[in-house]
Amino acid sequence: MSTYRLKNLLSPRSVALVGASARPVSVGRAVLENIHKADFKGQVGLVNLRHREIGGVAAVASLDKLGFVPELVVITAPAREVPGIIDQAGRLGSAGALIVSAGLGHGPGSLHEAAIAAAGKYGMRLIGPNCLGIMMPGVSLNASFAAHMPGAGNLALISQSGAIAAGMVDWAAQRGVGFSGIVSIGDQIDVDIADLLDYFALDHKTRAILLYIESIKDARKFMSAARAAARVKPVVVVKSGRMAQGAKAAATHTGALAGADAVYDAAFRRAGVLRVSDLRELFDCAETLGRVESPTGKRLAILTNGGGIGVLAVDRLVELGGIPASISADARKKLDDVLPSTWSGANPVDIVGDADASRYAAALEALLADTGNDAVLVLNVQTAIASAADIAATVTDLVAKYRERHRGWAKPVLAAWVGADQAIIQTLSGAGIPNYPTEDDAVRGFMHLVRHREVVEELSQVPPTMPDTFVPDARAARQIVAAAIADGRKWLEPVEIKHLLEAYDIAMVPTYAAADVEQAAACANEIFAQGGTVVLKIMSRDIVHKSDVGGVVLNLTTPDAVRAAAADILARTRKLRPEARIGGVIVQAMVVKAKARELILGVADDPTFGTVVVFGRGGTAVEIINDKALALPPLDLQLARDLIDRTRVSRLLRAYRDVPAVKQDAVAMVLVKLAQMAADIPEIREFDINPLLADETGVTAVDARVAVGPSQRKLAGSGPANFAVRAYPSQWERRLELKDGWRIFVRPLRPEDEPTIHEFLRHVTPHDLRLRFFAPMKEFTHEFIARLTQLDYARAMAFIALDETTGEMVGVVRLHSDSIYESGEYAILLRSDLKGRGLGWALMQLIINYARSEGLKAISGDVLQENTAMLEMCRQLGFEVKPDPTEPDICDVRLKL
User: Which InterPro entries match (predicted)?
Assistant: First the structure.
């Protein structure tokens, strides 16, 4: 599993350091001293071939001379020795190694490959190489060469940079912020970001996870782990290289718009990860998320002794999408009673510059009791009249009492003491109050809390149902693309594009291909016969942007005008681009819609995340306007709407003045269809519809470019190889006939099935629920069911069974595999009144077949001893059944595939 043996590495009972140097200034010596300074409670051994003692610590010549088997082996030895050390540790039975050493190289025959091979023989896990190390305050382990050891807390940090990890430790020491763990992952020879996301997502000591990322190797594994983690706790990322230019040589507008960092941004958004722009903002996130829970809304009350700073805070709040809280009538009366008549009378609550500790306390108490706000920000500008330290002490005391009275949930209180000394910071931090140097930082901290709550809600949303009328002709579309590739072409011809769009029910203007002037006139007559006008465009595989060579002529109304324009276009293009292959001209009906909006829609290929969907304002200057948004497919209607809403042009899709609104969801449906097309035909490398005209009647594609080529991408698991997020696996839909002719329809679970799940659970007895969940289940909340239905179809899969006659749900089977697709854990639940009719057997066979198709080596499960029917079925299916060594009431069942 991705978390396999990670607990042994991150919470080991014994540690051995191999390669500590006798030199005072060396990595090995620093790691040795840090291990001892941290006062690790387990066994510690030192291995050094040349020295019997280093820094007062006895050493042995090899690992087998230690007298114990270390769970974790920390390696600071020269790179050439690393594979041998790992092999020796594996033979002894060590769980894993932390490779601090650098210089293992890459590729066939490298020390890197040798280290992986050595670990693989014994199932060892490896962190590093070329890393700062790990710091786990909860077990007093500092196996790093960082200058300081952080205190214990509830933040986890996963960093690709050792320097960033060390900087976070220094900052945390000043602010009193603690960590559940800090892991510098280096070159990620084995344990990677996704593995650690899985580990800390399940770690009850961790409230939030911070990431510093430079690049991602396995996009599908990262997306699966990040989405799972973000559902249960905040995940915050800062990524370097934001200004790096991506897709410079892109041949289409969508390719040019899909720059590398924009794709990372889309990936983080899809995963529910909060992205921040720099370390300062990451520090603010750590300050906030490590101390308080997310508010129920985004209404912020601001208490201040300085009107100017309060107004600045409100400005920033509104700019970031927050809401200045209104003061309720009851709260206003309380404030009038305790404050001087000169107070502001509104939010921000300015209690005047001479406010002392008692005035702060009275006002804060009223705001905490006010149901009109979701959180309170306390600001203080130091004056010579009242002691800022006394005010801080009073505020912390009041907040502590408030939290004691509201143990179930207390609204967040944040603070910013401008120019505060370290003593005030320690007072506020010691009370668990997030505090910041400025009002701007404080408001950003509050909005991080808000954004996390919104992310959780977005991840648990039930998407709208797709129209049943959309059934694409994927087979015809594949044939078009396959024929072009077989012909050695990289671009589809215009008529092929029209047929491709028709296969997915996307309207395009009438389009013809003409090899010469006379054929162009003949095609134009088809359009003139319907009362239309004509546009001519040059047709060349080597000229993607036709307007660059004057290859577009509009508003042609007669056959003679078409002949003249065609001759002119062909002659001009041959003169400007003599090397270009010219196939003739494209003849299209000219669409004139005065109130239509010009949009661009398309898909592009990213080297890390695969297919990306692009939407924005269309036209010839799309790169200059740069009004675009990106999303990772697959898309449903809600995701498509969100993509549209992130652009400025989305506001023009609404009605204004005498311009009617664009037809509802017409544009969103085209985005969904393009995403489906990319899933069905991974050979589409880039797709560019520009412009797509949209108005109250619907949408029409005017021009499009499609680049094709053999698909060379391969991501872990099955599903579209070009998708980092797996699409709905419709190929697993089944119709089965069981005992007594009972016919059922089985399909993968979908997010919109939440109401169906609720109804199904009403037909399951409390006894059967306890057998499934190992505990009495009195209530199933929306959040709980949403987590069950929000599948990534990668590590998590579920099939529901529906009675074909009634349409009612009658059973469900689930499988959750590890991120490296080696094994998975199953669970099954049937309607209690329909057991004994062969449904359980059929669903178990289906999930076993699915696991085999995924390439899993085994599936397993936990079954209560009293669940004799399930245990007997497992035996008949070939599962090995063993008592759980730690839980006497549970049996472990396992099937090798």
Answer: Acyl-CoA_Synth/Transferase, Acyl_CoA_acyltransferase, ATP_grasp_subdomain_1, CoA-bd, GNAT_dom, Ligase_CoA_dom, NAD(P)-bd_dom_sf, Succ_CoA_lig_flav_dom
